[in-house]
Automatic annotation (TrEMBL):
<dbReference type="InterPro" id="IPR050186">
    <property type="entry name" value="TPT_transporter"/>
</dbReference>
<dbReference type="InterPro" id="IPR037185">
    <property type="entry name" value="EmrE-like"/>
</dbReference>
<protein>
    <submittedName>
        <fullName>Similar to glucose-6-phosphate/phosphate translocator</fullName>
    </submittedName>
</protein>
<keyword id="KW-0472">Membrane</keyword>
<feature type="transmembrane region" description="Helical">
    <location>
        <begin position="156"/>
        <end position="175"/>
    </location>
</feature>
<dbReference type="InterPro" id="IPR004853">
    <property type="entry name" value="Sugar_P_trans_dom"/>
</dbReference>
<feature type="transmembrane region" description="Helical">
    <location>
        <begin position="187"/>
        <end position="209"/>
    </location>
</feature>
<dbReference type="Pfam" id="PF03151">
    <property type="entry name" value="TPT"/>
</dbReference>
<keyword id="KW-0812">Transmembrane</keyword>
<feature type="transmembrane region" description="Helical">
    <location>
        <begin position="229"/>
        <end position="250"/>
    </location>
</feature>
<feature type="transmembrane region" description="Helical">
    <location>
        <begin position="45"/>
        <end position="68"/>
    </location>
</feature>
<feature type="transmembrane region" description="Helical">
    <location>
        <begin position="12"/>
        <end position="33"/>
    </location>
</feature>
<keyword id="KW-1133">Transmembrane helix</keyword>
<feature type="transmembrane region" description="Helical">
    <location>
        <begin position="104"/>
        <end position="125"/>
    </location>
</feature>
<feature type="transmembrane region" description="Helical">
    <location>
        <begin position="284"/>
        <end position="303"/>
    </location>
</feature>
<dbReference type="GO" id="GO:0016020">
    <property type="term" value="C:membrane"/>
</dbReference>
<feature type="domain" description="Sugar phosphate transporter">
    <location>
        <begin position="20"/>
        <end position="300"/>
    </location>
</feature>
Length: 344
């Protein structure tokens, strides 16, 4: 197994590795910070937080463009709008799920994105998974079911947001996988369009999803925007910017599979934070459900990596035409042309 891991890691692109490290660090930090802001600092306004993160992403990208880090490229708004709608739903339902659920349930439900993508691709795009990979998804689903029924903060509203988040995230990943290539743009150029469009899309829904009533003491108008609360919320905006651009960087430079594998590593760290930082009660059933989910996740990942390795080795074994053969073919073609010209 160690030799296989070394073979899979051989020839890793440093650009891909740096993008994955950026996404790993920023995503884990954002989940923990958002949960601290919502639970410990009482900012229970997930849609407003989503809007703030998108605005921060847009403003920081404009600053980066002004500093010459990248050049803004004109893109067709109609093509980008679908991904922007997916971004809005992906971030909104993710934050709402995090607000209403425990970190453990929130993260385990996100693992369901992988089998959901498989189902969507089979139903809508006629892309079918081989039997071994289907079998590896069984413990994933069983583990999620066990974790769900044993979660200490399980509620209908939180479960609904989590399920909606899984569905929207699945479509979001499918769409973002090919849009950079079809539009011939990089991650920063694409996000410079997606972020402001997604912010505009969610703006009308913010007062509906969050409490913006001027007559309610629990509304956002009566929230204590003390310097420490405001500073922490601002920090989440910066990490939201890093997460938004790093998602496109990872998928654009590698593949949705690599992004999902990275997500599995984040799952382990985030689940541990639920026990350490947010005092999730340790029970055998809930822990067994989480472990079963992770077993299925790593089984699925190992099978996919093994398939990719075998395909790479098969391509390498296929002999490429040598330079001498190529020159010989050119000489033969020139002889044929010369004979033909003489006959004419």
């Amino acid at each position: 197994m160690l030799q296989r891991a070394r073979a899979n890691l051989a020839g890793v692109d440093l650009h891909v590795a740096s993008s994955m490290c950026l996404n790993f660090g920023s995503s884990v930090s954002l989940v923990v910070l958002n949960k601290v802001v919502m639970d410990n600092h009482g900012f229970k306004f997930a849609a407003t937080l989503t809007f703030f993160h998108l605005v921060c992403t847009f403003l920081l990208l404009r600053l980066a463009a002004a500093l010459g880090i990248f050049e803004i490229k004109r893109l067709p708004v109609r093509d980008v709008a679908k991904l922007a709608a997916g971004t809005m739903g992906f971030i909104t339902f993710t934050n709402l799920s995090l607000q209403h659920n425990s970190v453990g349930f929130y993260q385990v439900m996100k693992v369901m994105t992988t089998p959901t993508v498989v189902i969507i691709e089979a139903l809508l795009y006629q892309k079918y998974l081989e039997n071994t990979l289907r079998l590896s998804l069984v413990p994933v689903c069983l583990g999620v079911i066990i974790t769900t029924v044993t979660d200490f903060r399980l509620n209908a509203v939180g479960a609904g947001y989590a399920i909606a988040g899984v569905i929207v995230t699945s479509f979001y990943q499918i769409w973002s996988g090919t849009l950079q290539r079809s539009l011939d743009c990089n991650a920063l150029q694409l996000q410079a369009y997606v972020a402001p469009l997604a912010a505009l899309f969610i703006l009308p829904f913010v007062p509906l999803l969050d409490n913006w009533s001027t007559n309610d003491l629990e509304s956002i108008w009566y929230y204590n925007f003390a310097p420490n609360n405001l500073s922490l919320i601002s920090v989440t905006g910066f990490f939201g910017f890093l997460v938004n651009i790093s998602i496109f960087l990872v998928i654009g430079r590698s593949s949705p599979l690599s992004y999902n594998i990275l997500g599995h590593c984040k799952t382990v760290v985030v689940l541990l934070s639920d026990y350490v930082l947010f005092h999730r009660p340790f029970t055998f059933k809930s822990s067994f459900g989480i472990i079963l989910t992770l077993i299925g996740v790593f089984w699925y990942t190992n099978v996919k990596l093994e398939r990719a390795r075998l395909e790479k080795e098969a391509r390498e074994r296929t002999p490429a035409p040598s330079i001498s053969d190529t020159k010989q073919d050119i000489l033969e073609e020139e002889k044929i042309e010369l004979v033909t010209s003489r006959e004419e």
